[in-house]
Structure formats: structure tokens, C-alpha cells
Amino acid sequence: MKPCKRIEIVIETPMVPSLIRVLEELNVPGYTLVPDVRGAGDRGVRRADEFSGESSNSLLLIACDDQATIERLLEGVRPLIRRSGGICLLSDAQWLRH
Fold this sequence. Notes:
The protein is an alpha+beta fold. It is 29% helix and 41% strand. A hairpin with a 2-residue loop joins strand 3 and strand 4 (44-46).
């Protein structure tokens, strides 16, 4: 097991391409995308069942063990969340590498 940070980003689905561009520019090693997540927060209920997807959210999950990359990632995510809402969580994790 290797210590790492688990980064969870919930963002409006239409913002996902912009977020992925940020991840690519920062050479983030990888991510998992979970589309159409639902829930409620300060911007109301997200049902994730509308045809257009305009008011649905997506979850990106990232495991990273490089502190410099993590800091750049958090700064890159901040403007997207500030503009459209969402949440970014950072927690300690253990990475079972294959």
C-alpha cells in the first residue's frame, strides 16, 4: 500500500470537458469519471434524470501521490467550481498498486 491523496470532484456535467482539459494540462496521471450523480446542495437538487443533462452532475475521482501536482490541481479546479458550483474533497488514502 502506498499513501496518496484521494481527490473527489463533483461538478456540473457540462463543465466536465473543461475540467478534463485542466487535468491533461497538469499531467494528472488518471481519473475515474462517474456521470449523472444526484444529490442536493447549496444550488438545490440535482436529479440526474433530465434528457439534456444540463442540470446533472458528474464525479471525478483521482488518486495522486505527488504533492506538487495536487496543489496545482486544486488551484486549477477552484475557478471551475467558483463559476458553476460543485465540490472538491481531498482526503488521505492508501493506494493498492498492481
